[in-house]
Write a structure and sequence with these properties.
By secondary structure, the chain is an alpha/beta fold. The chain contains 18 helices and 24 strands. About 55% of the residues are buried.
Amino acid sequence: MSADLVITNAVVYTVDNARPWASSIAVADGKILALEDVERGPKTEVLDLDGAFVLPGLVDVHNHHAMAGRAELFELSLGADAGFDGILAAVRARAGELGPDEWLTGGAWPSTLVAKLSTASARRALDKAAGGRPVALTDDSHHNRWVSSRALELAGITAATPDPPGGVIVRDGGEPSGLLLEAAGVLVERVTGGLTEDQHRRASRRAIEILHAHGVTAFQDAGVSTDILGALKSLDDAGELDAWAVSSLLVNDPIFGFDPVGAPLLELAGRYRTEHHRPDFVKIFLDGVPPTRTAAFLEPYRPDAVHGHDFHGATTMSGEELTDWLRTAATAGFSAKVHCTGDASVRLLLDAVEKLRAEGHTAARFQVAHGQFVHPDDLARFAALDVAADISPFLWVPGVIPEAIAGVLPPERAARMQPNRALLDSGALLAGGSDWPVSESPNAWEGIAGLVTRQDPYGRRPGALWPEQAITLAEAIEAFTLGGARACGLDDVTGTLAPGRSADFAVLDRDPFRTADVAGTQVTETWFAGRRVFRH
């Protein structure tokens, strides 16, 4: 069989222990034929890479691609370090482009501003900057929203409105301040207006173009609506989905405002399955995020006037309810990604998985999503129960969100985030994710560099975050290739460069093993199923 494409004169890092290195790749019918030069036909394309470094297409095990594409195309984007005055200036500029009562949406404001935005005076400043327009801006976790007075009015939120289940309407002197935590933000999200079918397609397509620019050829979206499912199916039906996509169907929805969720959504999953789109996971939010004290911990937060001295946060459901949902999903053939940012939620999930494994549910894949905090007693349980650690976003280095977390947890606990070395040493499967747009970019090389040094790769913040938990470069690359593929069920088609796998690979501008600037690594070409989908 002759090859359609032969890559020659390359440094090929396969992430396959059976054959870690090669210098050539032969491709036929979109799959790897061999890791060597083979028979060439009259139409064989030969590409001499002049010694360039090649590795498998990256796998982003946790992002919100459609949300990121929507933000890129249709919303106001704020930098992670945006201050209060900078946000108001950006809103003022954007408002000048809008109609008199047109929605202004976007984000993300930094978690360190929670206290500042909890006041009615801050909301009035937002009203003035927006010219009275309805405004809804998400925070850097995308779990919480800061909204204007007009947005509160359109959502029907008044001083008399009770906190919704799973959410908090932060008040100042009895009136809504404009800060809405977790499910309270859904009250506004439901009245902001949605995208058209074509806009959803455009958002997904644009996001995948950005992923290609960073060498990503496979991803798991961590929470989808029927609109997003429909966009992915439509793109693949038209031959335009140039990536492997795994979708996570929401069991509960404390932040997005999607409908349907839960059992009705699971029943619809099959109609959206295509060659490259696998709606194979459910997604459960088991807690919130630490900066707003909505994550669930075994030990209490630092005391404050609102929560007292013994506040631990709470999970969104009981262990029994969680176990029932995981059992229902596994019986129907679904795997599960479960959002856990506090160590109490991690333990609750591991307890539930232990029951399911004992019942014989061995095929289902389970992921702890985020898992920044894991009690030492639970580390070995990941491998024992075959639970993957979805490490996302890039919170293993000093940054805005770690700084915000340090404000609510005792310092000795806040400094012990993301125990990646301990997880690997215990035999756990580590899978890398960006959580884009929670991370400003899906550039995995920023995350990979941080995994190796535990330092801000750009030197914006000094010091290292728990440097004892650093891992090797090879381990970090595997987390963003084979580890991710295994965690989301794509290891039958991608994650390594080996005969029979999809010809998904990225060409880099440097050998990451021979540079002092791993974070500066640039992708020069990305190939998916034997087709070039990005060229710098």
